Amino acid sequence: MASAGAAVTVVERCAVSPPPRSVPPATLPLTFLDIPWLFFSPTQPIFFFASAAAAAAANFTQTVVPKLKHSLSLALRHFFPLAGKLVIPAALSAEPHLEYNESDSVLLVVAAAADGCEFKNLAGNHRRDGRRFRRLVPEIGGGDGGKRPVLAVQITVFPEMGICIGFTLRNVAADWRTFNNFLKNWASLCKSGGDLLDAGRHVASHDRSVILDSGGLRSFFLTEFWKMAKNVKDVNFDDSEIVRATFVLGPKEMEQIKKWILTRSDLLFGSTQLLLSPYVIVCAFIWVCWIKTHWSTNMITRKDIVHYFGFIAGGLTRMPYAVPSTYVGNCVGFGRSAAIREELAGKDGVVFAAKAIGDTVKKLNGDMLGGARNWIAEWKEMRESELHVTVTGSPKLDLYELDFGWGRPEKFEEVSIGTGAISLSESREVIGGIEVGVALPRLKMDAFSTLFNEV
Fold it and tell me: Which residues in the chain are classed under CATH 3.30.559.10?
């Protein structure tokens, strides 16, 4: 795990399970909304908390770590699939599933950074060396005998400065809504000292029957998975030449972009009504900045190449039937928008991008499952295409409201984004703003920053 920047030393590695005899063994089938996530590498979110008191050496080892362990155990009682395993049998006749046994646990790594002052550097929006973040998330491993851990956690203390909590999560067990519910439950238990006896009673539902499959998508997706299973591997990004930066778009900038789109849309699309939500506006602007960044350094001159923008759409309000907000598992749809290079790279690029993304959102709003049989094939095509962009995270998750007793996070980062992905979250400082996490080689980050600042 060698990397640039201050050294991080592992102090402890331990296994955290739900309280003894609190959760019976369980096997959970994968629904058709879980199966597509078998093709994705784990997500790796990080939260930085600025608290000199909590990060004091004695307080951290004697008070903070034991409290985090205890409250994590209590939270896993209600979110036990996260402590279990993803089982992928070797035989085609068997089905991948989630499994929990009383011997299962979450790997918890406790670490210490040599330089506490490094906290301020890492927990900022400015450019930072991408390699420095890899030391702050745990390795989850592939597991033995087809059984893969679902979640690993790393707590890193920056002496006298703050605490960082990093995760490696296989989304096949939980979408971001579920994971956010888990985090809030864990944080509440930690902040209260574990005194919330009823915490979790009404925040976790494991009833897989609520995901109805009238279209036979589960069987179809399983067939698609077994066709490609041997090529499904976790991706390890090379961060040696990568810098990370966070860009913020507030309501003022969004309104400027929206006005420009509306000014040009009548000329390009006539009376067509565009869907111009803050999410669509931000994604459209970032997509165009991304394409123009790579266009300037790309030797290929063809202008008719199709570029894709992929994102996830929440399913609670889009499914044709009710799914409880407390459901533990996946309830999201997949969206893929397409536009040709000449459109995206031209002066009206943001307008074309907004129409493409907005039209995709409209389709998902109207019938989220209407094109579901194409999800896996479309995303495979997108990943194999040139200069595609995918989005992880959502500005609707209120991640900056997470509080373990040290106040709101100073910064959120998604480490798993490579040079073909961005992360989105709500802004900590700008009301109604959206933070965009970007990871690019240095020269391309120069170009991207220039384009972004033209808004």
Answer: 8-231, 242-452
What distance in Å separates the CA atoms of residue 369 and residue 365, rounded to the nearest whole number? 10
Measured CA to CA, the distance from residue 376 to residue 36 in angstroms comes to 7
Question: Using the 8-state DSSP alphabet, how is residue 141 labeled?
Answer: -
Instruction: Collapse the DSSP code of 409 into the 3-class scheme (helix H, G, I; strand E, B; otherwise coil) and give the result.
Output: coil
DSSP secondary structure, 227-281, as one string: HHGGG--------TTEEEEEEEE-HHHHHHHHHHHHHHHHHHHTTPPP---HHHH
| Full DSSP string of 73-107 | HHHHHHSGGGGSEEE--SSTTS--EEEE-TT--EE
Unique residue bearing structure tokens 């402590």: 83
Whether the Cβ atoms of residue 12 and residue 113 lie closer than 8 Å to each other = no
CATH code for the part of the protein at 8-231: 3.30.559.10
The pTM assigned to this predicted structure is 0.93
| DSSP state at residue 43 | B
Judge contact between 378 and 372, C-beta under 8 A: no
pLDDT digits (tens, 9 = 90+) for 266-287: 888 888 889 999 999 999 999 9
The yes/no answer on whether domain 242-452 falls in CATH 3.30.70.2660 is: no
Largest CA distance in the chain: 67
Rounded to 10 deg, the angle between the 176-192 and 65-78 helix axes is: 130
Tens digit of pLDDT for each residue in 14-43? 999 999 999 999 999 999 999 999 999 999
Token pair, residue 438, equals: 């970007």
Structure tokens at 419: 């040079």
Tell me the two tokens of residue 226.
């077994």
In terms of Cβ atoms closer than 10 Å to its own Cβ (0-12, 13-18, 19+), residue 40 is middle
Q: How far apart are CA 418 and CA 401, in angstroms?
A: 26
**Could you give the C-alpha distances from 198 to 78, 204, 414, in angstroms and in order?**
11, 12, 31
